[in-house]
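User: Is it possible to get a 3D structure for a protein together with its bound compound? The compound here is adenosine-5'-diphosphate. I've pasted both below.
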Amino acid sequence: MASVRIHHLYKRYGKDKHAVVKDFQLEIKDKEFIVFVGPSGCGKSTTLRMIAGLEDISEGEIYIGDQLVNKLPPKDRDISMVFQNYALYPNLTVYENIAFGLRMRKLPKHEIDLAVKNASRILEIESYLYRKPKELSGGQRQRVALGRAIVRKPKLFLMDEPLSNLDAKLRATMRMEITKLHKKLGTTFIFVTHDQVEAMTMADRIVVMKGGVIQQCDTPELIYSKP
Ligand code: ADP
Ligand code: ADP
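Assistant: Yes, that's possible. Here is the predicted structure of the complex:
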């Protein structure tokens, strides 16, 4: 169960700088698919990184479930994050890339194997489990990155422009794949993009940001039907 509550969140870089995220307030329901959308530099990534614990919070509170996570390191937040550049280990096979986090947690070998195979089945990447990232296409790499994220069974998925390196056709396919994945897993997703089509087709609710503040927060139907 992962609802997320964000309360009066601010981010300032440096002491007397103006805030790049200002008074951000949001309640995300368990299993919701939330998309942060807005122009480059509006604070989407910074907000996501604060939720992930990759960036200090200047002011405010973030709760994941009932836990105040302001001071928790990323590894204790029960989250998985997928980035634009995949961040796969180039010298490890697909299998080893997916297993990596579970090995770090010292799970027994047969459990790791089961989890990797299961994630591979869900993402349909079984046929290239023993290849290295450089032998894969961009879309295949992004599937592996998703596999590595889901294998940990997190309560919360954070995605930062995961499709922006893909060509238009693959982007359309992966939009559907991620929507399917969300339904299959029944986990809360927060997805950052500057692409309105992604926001419109994937989100349960869209948070429109501009200049560090939330301009609108509503369902796609309501946001894009307004004049
Ligand atoms: P209690 O401390 O007995 O849980 P509270 O009224 O402080 O009662 O909080 C009720 C719920 O609201 C708790 O689950 C808590 O995590 C959450 N909560 C408290 N303060 C905040 C806040 N500033 N922003 C978001 N959630 C909050
Ligand atoms: P978005 O994800 O919407 O493109 P970001 O959250 O990356 O926007 O950035 C929001 C603002 O914060 C931008 O003006 C950016 O230049 C600034 N910013 C991001 N990271 C840093 C940093 N490490 N130091 C100073 N300013 C930063």
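Residues 168-185 form the longest helix (18 residues). The pocket of adenosine-5'-diphosphate (ligand 1) is lined by residues 5, 7, 61, 63, 66 (CB under 6 Å).
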